[in-house]
Amino acid sequence: MKIAPVAEIKARFSAYVESAKEGPVVVTRNGRPVAVLVAAETDEEVEDLLIAHSPRLRRILDASRKQIAEGAGIPHEEFWRRARSGGSSRSAKR
């Protein structure tokens, strides 16, 4: 993993893009991390990165974890049964 200031990244962006293929490049401003340059070779990798850092997805996952902790989840088998059937029907018991 490399670490470089914004000014250095701007001056040699192409070189850092190449370097990111070998591992993340942490971009700093005033010595503090502000971004990470990560290589992606496929559209799927880009999509995975975007989804992983989606605030909306994070809220959905946090709400789901809270529901599960409160006992409001459904068993694993039931989830997959519903997923395979394409239905999103909710249990009558809430």
Describe the structure.
- The protein is α+β, with helices and mostly antiparallel strands.
- Helix content is 52%, strand content 16%.
- The mean pLDDT is 89.
- It is built from five helices and three strands.
- The protein has helices at 6-11, 13-20, 43-52, 55-69, 76-85; strands spanning 2-5, 25-29, 32-37.
- The longest helix has 15 residues, at 55-69.
- A three-stranded mixed β-sheet has the order 1-2-3.
- It has two domains: 2-37, 3-Layer(aba) Sandwich (YefM-like fold), CATH 3.40.1620; 43-85, no CATH class.
- It is elongated.
- The termini are far apart.
What is the fold's blueprint, element by element?
Blueprint: E1 2-5, H1 6-11, H2 13-20, E2 25-29, E3 32-37, H3 43-52, H4 55-69, H5 76-85
Parallel strand pairs: 1-2
Antiparallel strand pairs: 2-3
Quick structural summary:
The protein is of the alpha+beta class. The chain has helices at residues 6-11, 13-20, 43-52, 55-69, 76-85, and strands spanning 2-5, 25-29, 32-37. The chain is built from five helices and three strands, in the order βααββααα.
